[in-house]
Amino acid sequence: MNTNGQIYKISIAPEKGMQKKNIDNAELQENFGIVGDGHAGSGRQVSLLPFESFEKVKNDIVEINPGDFAENITTTGIDFSNVTIGKKMKIGDDIELEVTQIGKECHHGCYIREAVGDCIMPREGIFAKVLHGGKMSVGDKIQWSN
């Protein structure tokens, strides 16, 4: 399992259900999530999805971009395939996340599934809570810590 990767893109939306926009950096707050994101403060504080998964649903008709699957952090180079609930990861030197959920149920009428024909977030995405916050930026390293 590849244990080291990096942040490829950071995406947030002010409200749940809105399309996320890519930003260069963000602040993660302990036991809350990403400041300015609609999922902060919920049971799914931060969502992560490997950019490598985008190839699995590549569509010639619709352009798919980081954030389109409603993930907050699009990663590269880190393997989520053997992740278990409770596993911890570090982002940069300060931020620590703990995996709280693997995948999710895709709700009826999901705009991603309708536009692309498939949604990988239920199978490939993970959700985490913030154990230790801080500032993160595109390009920051990510590594499993346990």
Lay out the secondary structure.
Layout: E1 4-12, E2 21-23, E3 25-29, E4 33-34, E5 46-50, E6 73-76, E7 88-91, E8 95-102, H1 111-116, H2 121-124, E9 126-132, E10 134-137, E11 141-144
Parallel strand pairs: 5-6
Antiparallel strand pairs: 1-2, 1-6, 1-11, 3-4, 3-10, 5-9, 7-8, 7-11, 8-9
Unreliably modeled segments: none
Biggest sheet architecture = 7 strands, mixed, barrel
What is the fold-level CATH name, i.e. the topology? M1 Pyruvate Kinase, Domain 3
Q: How large a portion of the residues is in β-strands, by DSSP E?
A: 35-45%
* CATH H-tier superfamily: PK beta-barrel domain-like
Tally of individual domains: 1
Instruction: Assign the CATH class.
Output: Mainly Beta
User: Which secondary-structure class do the elements indicate?
Assistant: mainly beta
CATH architecture grouping: Beta Barrel
- Count up the helices: 2
Span between termini: 13 Å
Q: Specify the helix fraction band.
A: under 10%
Compute the CA-based radius of gyration. 14 Å
Mean pLDDT: 86
Note the overall shape.
globular
Number of strands: 11
Read across the widest sheet, the strand sequence of neighbours is 1-6-5-9-8-7-11
Element-by-element helix/strand order: EEEEEEEEHHEEE
Descriptive tags:
single chain, seven-stranded mixed beta barrel, 2 helices, M1 Pyruvate Kinase, Domain 3, mainly beta, 146 residues, three-stranded antiparallel β-sheet, globular
Structure characterization notes:
- By secondary structure, this protein is mainly beta.
- It has a single domain (4-144), classed as PK beta-barrel domain-like (M1 Pyruvate Kinase, Domain 3), CATH 2.40.33.20.
- Helix content is 7%, strand content 38%.
- It has helices spanning 111-116, 121-124; strands at residues 4-12, 21-23, 25-29, 33-34, 46-50, 73-76, 88-91, 95-102, 126-132, 134-137, 141-144.
- The longest helix has 6 residues, at 111-116.
- The model has no long low-confidence stretch (mean pLDDT 86).
